[in-house]
Structure formats: structure tokens, C-alpha cells
Amino acid sequence: MTLVIVISIIVCALIIVSVLLVPEIRIGRVRFAPYWVIALLGGIAMIACGGISFSSLLDRFTADTAVNPLKILGVFFGMTVLSVFLDEAGFFAYLASVALFKASKSQKKLFTVFYFTVAILTVFTSNDIIILTFTPFVIYFCRNANIDCKPYLIAEFAAANTFSMLLIIGNPTNIYLAAGIDFLHYAAVMSVPAILTGLVCYLLIKTLFKKSLEQPVGEGGAVVPIKDKPLAFVALSLLGVCTLLLAISGYIGLEMWYIALSGGGAIVVFAFIYGAIRHRLVFAQRGLLRIPWQLAPFLLSMFAIVSALSDIGVTDSMAQFLNRGQLDVITYLVASVLGANLLNNIPMSVLFGAVLGSASEAALYATVIGSNLGALLTSVGALAGIMWSNMLKKENVQFTFKDFVKNGAIIVAAALPAAALGLYFTLWIF
Length: 430
What we know:
mainly alpha, about 75% helix, 22 helices, two-stranded antiparallel sheet
């Protein structure tokens, strides 16, 4: 029992140290993030020490349940592939440039258009993809227009991590925590918390940067054209069909992982066939390389570690501490936000997924909210935050860890009450 806990603590500590101090390792031409290697070694160590048997773990990986991690990865990778190929076709870049270059000469109007463009796209794709796609265009536009980029960078991050709560597909943590919940029921419950929290963040950031947003806008440049219209059309069509099928999956007898993987597989096949015909295989090859495949060993390894903790009763003890009846929304919301910043939101979600086995529906949705809003407090709260911060450093944008926490603490302090009120309201209705 003690060894299981010690291994878990060491793995989590090393993951946090790696993402803060060594986010990337280079060996010759090979570059990789060490966090998933640490998790993988931790999972192997857990099996080797007898914390969990390989056969028991294999049974859980092949179990015909909604929380099967392989099915959850299927949903995540299927939808992520569609988003990545949309980006490769230049669709997101086109929309970003339209929002930034054509909105208005008024920064206040520009800010509003940009914020809600990010919000709407996040709902139907993935917050990570949107953040990493829009950031370079924000920096480029602001430098050319001679305006402060911080309001837009913070707005981008806030919009992506609040409106990502609205649909299950908006964040991989949603997919994991809400596995087994009907797509439409989830959307109905989370709509008010997501929209209310997103609006509160919008008003708060606009107020915090009021002086900066009053400055005139210079020339930002021209609209970036879509690089490959046929690929963008097919990817967008498949995304629309998959989203529709996911919404009615509970009524047509199709599991979400099957729908998502079918859509992702279809766009990969199309991209290679179309690329071979048009001599544009670069889109297909580059798209596959951009998929965050490292999340598979990371999630499966963390699942093994959490399973071992669950077997020795740790997650039951956490549940007893957090379960407070009508206060479940508060306890799980605060605990998940703090947990996301201690462990990163994906390991936190895996851990809380086991804790939620004996918890209320309110606790589940509160944890989903916390897994999203936790990303706003510090840059280690989510993998997107870590990659985002590294991207800003490479672009010589002065935005330190201290700056992130300074702004994030204010935003989270306003977002948490809004999310809690919204959740209490929808749970009262449903």
C-alpha cells in the first residue's frame, strides 16, 4: 500500500517538474515531451511492484463499459484528427484572419468579435487546437497593428477554456469524466454554466484591459486565404456529421467512440487519396504528425496508477472527504481546480474519475467544470497552457508564469462562482 502511494507521488511530482523545467528533450533530431515517458515508467513500475496486475489492467482496458480508457481515447483522437486536418487546410487561420483583420478599427469591437469567434469554434472542435492555432495570428496581428497582444491572448485562453465545457468533445477531460452520459443531456446541463462563465470572463477581461482596448488599431494585414478548399470542405462536413451523430448517438445505438473514429479515419483516407491525386501528400503527412499521440501512453499509464490507488482504497477516502450532499458542487469544483494545478488536468481527471464512482451527478459536472477552469489559474493546469507559454517565449512575448497567475487568479475568482451558480440552476431544472 505504502509503495503504491509513494510511486504515485513521485510520478506526479516528476511530471510537474518536467512540464515546468524541462518541457522538451532533444536527442539529435528527435524531440519529445518527457511528461508522458515519466507516466509510462510510473505505470510499468506500478505493475512491477505488484500495485496492480497486468491481467487486471488488461481486463479494465477491454471492459465493455463507457469509462473504458480505450473508447475514451477513440473519441478524443477521432475528433482531434478532424480538427487538425481543418487546421492543415487553413480553415482556422482563415477565420482568425477574418476576425482580426476585418472586424473593425475599434479595438473593443475587435475584441468582442475575436472572443466569440474563439468561443464558437471551441464548442465544436477542441480547446487545445484552437489555442495553439490562433496564438500565432494574434501575435502577428497585434505587432503589425501596433497594439497590446495581452488582452487577446488572455481572452483566447479564457474563451477556449470556458466554452469548452459546453459539449463533451470540447476537452479531452470532458470526454473522460462524462463517459457514459448522453451527449444531449450533457449539453443541456452544461449550457448555462459554460455560457454564463464565458460571459463573465469576457466582461471581466474587457474591464481589466479597458485602457489598452481604447488605443487605436493600425494596419493589421490582409485576410489569409484557405490553403486547400476541398480538404477544408470535406473535413468541415465530416465534423458536422460527427457532431450531429454524437448528439443522437444514444437514440441510434451507436457508441461515441465508433462515430468519432469513423469520422477521423474518413478524413485521413480522403487526405491521402486526394493528396496523391493532387500531389499534396504534405497535408496528410503533416496532419498525422501533429496529432498528440503521446496522450495515449500518458492516459493509459495514469489510468493504471489510479487503478492501483483505487484498489487500496485511496479514491474511496477522497470520496468520503469530498461528498457533502448539497455542497458537492462546491467541494468538487474547488478540489478539481486545485488538483488540475497540482497534477495537470488530465491526471487529475483520471484520478477523480475513480473518486466519482460513489459521488453524485452534481459532483461529476462540477469536476468537469474544474478540469476546464483549472487551466486558467496557472500555466501548468493543462497541457495547452504549457505549450501556449512555450509558444509565447519563442515569439519573444513577455508573459511570465507570474503574469499568468496574476491574471488567472482574478479570472478564476470570478469564473468559479458563475460556474457554480449556473450548475446549481441547471441541476435544479433537470
